[in-house]
Amino acid sequence: MKKLVVAIVLAAVAAPSYSAAAQQIGTIERGNYVCELPGDAGGAAGIAQPDESFTIDSASRYSSPQGDGTYLRRGNRLTMTSGPRNGDSYAIESRGFLRKIENGEPSRLRCIRQGS
User: Fold this and answer.
1) Please, what is the Cα angle at 54 between 59 and 40, to 5 degrees?
2) CA 7, CA 27: separation in Å to the nearest integer?
3) What is the average per-residue pLDDT within 3-14?
4) For residue range 50-95, what is the model confidence (pLDDT) as tens digits?
C-alpha cells in the first residue's frame, strides 16, 4: 500500500499541470481598441491614451500608431507576439474590454473596442 501511495504522488508531481500553455488558443473581435486611464468624479470618465490604442486587423494581426505585428490569445490573455508591442499583454475582462498587464497584474489602463 505504501508503494502505491508513493507511486501516485510521484505520478502527480511528474504530470504537467494545467497552465497558460494548455489553454485554448483563440482570437478577439476585429476593430479599434481605444485605450484610456480612468478619470475622476470631477472630470472626464476616462483619459485617452492614443499611443496605447490599437486595431485588431485579422485573426492574428494588429496595427498601432507605432507599427504592425501579430498577437496570440490563450484563454483570457492577449499577448502581442511581434512588432512594436511585442511582449505587451492584456487581460480579457469581457467581450471588447481589455486591461493591460503590468508587473503580472491587470493595470488601470483599459482598452475598449469602439464601433462595430
Assistant:
1) 130
2) 40
3) 45
4) 999 999 999 899 999 999 999 999 999 999 999 999 999 999 999 9
Q: Which CATH number fits domain 25-114: 2.40.128, 3.90.700, 3.40.50, 3.30.160?
A: 2.40.128
Domain positions in the chain:
25-114
Pairing outcome for strands 67-74 and 77-80:
antiparallel
Q: CB of 113 within 8 A of CB of 31?
A: yes
Buried/exposed 45-82: b ≥16 CB within 10 Å, e otherwise: eeeeeeebbbbbeeeeebbbeeeebbbebeeeebbbeb
Other CB atoms within a 10 A radius of the CB of residue 94 amount to 7
- What is the grid cell recorded at 96? 471588447
Determine phi and psi for 66, rounding to 5 degrees.
-90, -15
The three cell numbers locating residue 60: 492574428
Give the sign of the dihedral formed by CA 88, CA 92, CA 95, CA 98.
Answer: negative
